[in-house]
Design goal:
Blueprint lengths: L2 E2 L10 E4 L12 H13 L6 H14 L6 H13 L7 H24 L13 H9 L4 E9 H10 L8 E5 L6 H10 L7 E5 L2 H9 L3 E5 L11 H10 L3 E3 L7 H6 L2
Parallel strand pairs: 2-3, 2-5, 3-4, 5-6, 6-7
Antiparallel strand pairs: 1-7
This protein binds magnesium ion (MG).
């Protein structure tokens, strides 16, 4: 079911933006648990209520989802500091997290690379069919991610989805952030109301709403990606998502994109 929360723009989309992790790809599925487990190793000894600590950490982790990981680690370092600990630098925390995540990521990518699993096993169900359908309509289609630019390019190639995009932007000084991409599209003459974004992070939802576009929250419950994850749904609804979907198998999704 496509859950409608707002009305979004009434214009047919001329540009469609997809976030990568958690929106199209499940290469990094489970990253939030890995991040929170890592944070709790430091936070746990600093206070008594582990449940409250984890839930506080989850709040800022969710708030910065979709941006470069260093923003989450800045909030974490600040949290450690407030509890009287001596935080490491956000960059050092980010490096530690990336190392832990790398094990999961590398396993999944090599399975796809060596043909042990199909690339589609690392995509949210229905993603390829929707990308194909949207591509056939002559819309501009962009990939925009807070993950490192070179990793995004490699993974899009490996998942065999790079052919669908007009442009792909990950995190790098030479690339564009989600906000910069939106500004460039609007600057190129596409009305904000004709931009539609799919995302599982607060950042892309808020930035899209800020230019008057339509935001579709992909609240897929990983790893099966069949149902809506109630927690993600709550975060995306609070960020201003116009619609919530569990995956791309929803009938009527293409019509929603096309504004029909
Ligand atoms: Mg994401």
């Amino acid at each position: 079911m496509i859950e409608r929360l707002g009305y979004g723009s009434r214009l047919p989309a001329r540009a469609v933006i997809f976030d990568f992790d958690g929106t199209l790809a499940t290469v990094r599925a489970g990253w939030m648990e890995i991040m929170l487990d890592m944070m709790m190793e430091t936070l746990g000894p600093l206070a008594n209520d582990a449940h409250a600590l984890r839930s506080e950490a989850e709040d800022y982790v969710a708030r910065f989802t979709g941006k470069d990981t260093v923003h989450q680690m800045e909030a974490f370092a600040e949290h450690v500091w407030r509890l009287g600990g001596e935080p490491e630098s956000p960059e050092a925390y980010k490096a530690e997290f990336m190392e832990r995540l790398e094990h999961v990521r590398a396993d999944r990518l090599s399975a796809a690379e060596e043909g042990r699993i199909s690339p589609d096993a690392l995509l949210v169900p229905g993603a390829r069919a929707l990308l194909q359908a949207v591509q056939g309509r002559n819309l501009e289609i962009y990939l925009a991610s807070g993950t490192a630019h070179n990793e995004i390019l490699r993974e899009a190639r490996l998942l065999n989805i790079e052919c669908y995009f007009t442009g792909m932007y990950g995190s790098a000084s030479t690339s564009l952030t989600k906000r910069e991409l939106l500004a460039r599209l609007v600057g190129s003459g596409i009305p904000g109301g004709a931009i539609l974004t799919f995302g599982d992070g607060r950042v892309e939802i808020e930035e899209t709403k800020a230019v008057g576009g339509t935001a579709i929250g992909v609240a897929t419950l990983e790893p099966d990606c069949v149902e809506v994850d109630p927690k993600k749904r709550g975060w995306l609804a609070a960020a201003g998502a116009d619609h919530i979907i569990p995956n791309y198998l929803e009938p009527g999704l293409l019509e929603l994109v096309l504004g029909q």
